[in-house]
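A brief tutorial aside. Many learners find it easier to grasp structure tokens once they have seen a single protein encoded end to end. The record that follows does exactly this for FAD-dependent monooxygenase. Read the sequence first, then the structure, and try to relate runs of similar tokens to stretches of the chain.
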Amino acid sequence: MVGPAKVVVLGAGIGGLTAAVALRHAGIGVEVYEAGPELRAQGSALSVQSNAVHALRTLGPELERELLERGARVESFRFCRPDGKPLRELPVGKQEERLGAPSIAIHRADLHAALRAAAGDTPIHLDARATRFVDGPDHVRVEFADGRVAEGDALIGADGIHSVVRAQLHGRADPRPGGFVCWLACIPFEHAAVGPGSSTHYWGTGMRFGLHDIGHGRVYWWGTKTLPAAEAADWKGGKAELLELYADWAPEVRACIEQTDEDAVLAVPAQDRPPLTAWGRGRVTLLGDAAHPMLPALAQGANAAIEDAVALASALRSAVDPAHGLRRYERSRIERSAMFVDGSRSLSMIEQTTDAKLVALRNTYFRLAPTEFFLRELSKPMSFPSLTGPVAELPRALTPAERWHWIADQLAPLHVVARARVHGTVEPERLRAALAEVQRRHPALRVAVRAEPDGTEPEFVPAEREIPLREVTAAEPERWLAEIDGTELAEPFDTAAGPLARAVLVHAADGSGADLLITLHHAVGDGESALTVAEQVLRVAAGEAGEYPAAPVRPGAEEFFPDGVGGARHLASSVLRDQQARFKKAKRLRPTELAEPAQRRSRVLHRRIDGDRLEVLLARCAQHGVGVRAAVAAALIGAAAREAGVEEPATYAIGSLLNFREHLPVSDAEVGVYQGLISSTAEYAPWTPLWQVATELAGALGTRLADRDHLAALELLRLTSPKSAAKAGSAVTMMDKNGPGHLCLTYLERPAFPDKLGAWRISGAQFVAGMSVCGFVSATATVLNGELAINLGYVEPAVSAERAERLADETVRGLLGAL
């Protein structure tokens, strides 16, 4: 199946219960553990704003209908002076139309009850006070004070501002004082100033008051007063003091306090915590107030928790690994939740100021500022970000990067191939049916390319043909490699007819199994995509597919890069960093012979490291604080230097193809081209330890990743990509002379590939990348199914077979020699 089998949620508040509902809706098992002895909502009331309503709509229409029945749709929103004189009224109807969803004022208990009902038969364990968690390679275990233990594939800490999970992840620390106290209450109340659906804020000097209709003859009121942190945390006043504090305020404010029982008033200090840059690790993450407690100014605390829960379920639903899914969830939420936290604190300073001059300035600004400005600013927190990311329609134009891949392929085939070994009987018809099902789910597997007669203006168009499956039977165990080397990297696609994908099933002559090869045109898929298709086809064929959501048609990746990427400033700085290799006169792998593009031929050699040697290599990488990518890159540099006879210290350059799916709102299970090529350098000498070179490479690459240079590299193609194959001569010359593809590595940090599906055992998952006219040597590496697979792709005649053999052998020798 896709996604975790069971998730453990700590905390049965609004965030925890919404997570339970969303996870169930995604088909993921969930259990909730609540520290309290009973299931009840803390606090008084809140506003479920438009962003949270949109989030809840992804779970079906029922919750929104029930909240509207239980609460009150916000129909008016006014800001007043303490005496009730109006400062401003916002056009709620116009804002609701703009946002496409209402805001609903509701008692917390009503929201809690609606979520509990929607959670159905989800197990909820009470009086379960967690003491710690233990994150293991296969599951996470939670231990409770009474001796109970819970286990799951992932743990969600939704246990509030004093979260046990957060404390173990990030250390214990007191919340940050907000500098004021809040009084809260819900009561039956009728008054001429409180109409149906009304919300009114009264702003004074260091004090405020709010009055909200929550339906069924009830109101929610709150008051605040700026106080030192210690007094706010331990307010000892009562109703009499509140009446005295608000004695000169509007009649409805005084009446509201007067009609509230003494013990119905809840006094709480305003508190938050500074935003975290990382929430969790491994199989553990945070949600709601455990992750981002905030001051009440934006009224987004519960709404942000609801957003978190829906985003969490969406990320886990299609995750190939729970930890991978949790990191995707965090990346989608950290920046937005920090906006809530910082925005609430900044607004609170304005709301709670005790400076009379600032109060006068604030009130004047609120009275005179353009309405459109207020609506635009309110729309930022109240607009729910799309869970699925941007979509497009076919036909759509190829982006500059896609166009370059398509053009390069016309000059010499440019393909990526995934391989997985299936141990057991493989029925071709089942595999064909699985290919058809997976093709249905991915628009990128159902396209062809149409262009003008002169080869310009290419666009993706629908292709009706199914992915073809070719069968081969062979006695040689490495026949899969010969098929890739001899056919899959060499045979062009009919791009005008499509599809731009094909499959090969290499049967073992003795019937022991088969190798599945998935080949993608590089304009529609990268190495991660090819492995994803291979895995999904095998899951479907084995009857273990689960319900993969069908992906939408996407715009090109460059069309939805994060803000700040691709602007003139970013491109200029990235280009300067790219030129560092030239400034340092870095050595490059030199071609033996350059040939016309039509004479170039992508080839591949395969090497692997497994068993004890792999375990030692991984341990040594951990010991030196570098990843496998850096170790293999350092070994590849050493191989190139030794092959060239380098005897003195020299700077070497190497290109890295880097996956950037983490920066985009796309599922890990989608097919597309989501990688960019950048170069980095390291000092090499024959006596330099591999780990020293690897450490330098890791640092240089880490800096470029942080600067998002791999994204800027694709944006640069807008300026440099040729318009057609006929005009590609200068681009090919540039790639030959200065391109980072002279010696490059793609290492996929894919968390896993299944080693068992149904009756099948799976092994040898890996991928191969051709080079076409993009460079000379492109190595790929993966650690999957218990082996490090290194596939050295090279282009003849720029690199001869004998020379490639030496490079491949020297790369492995360098790695093993460093152990």
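Self-check: The longest helix spans residues 322-351. If you spotted this yourself, you are ready for the next section.
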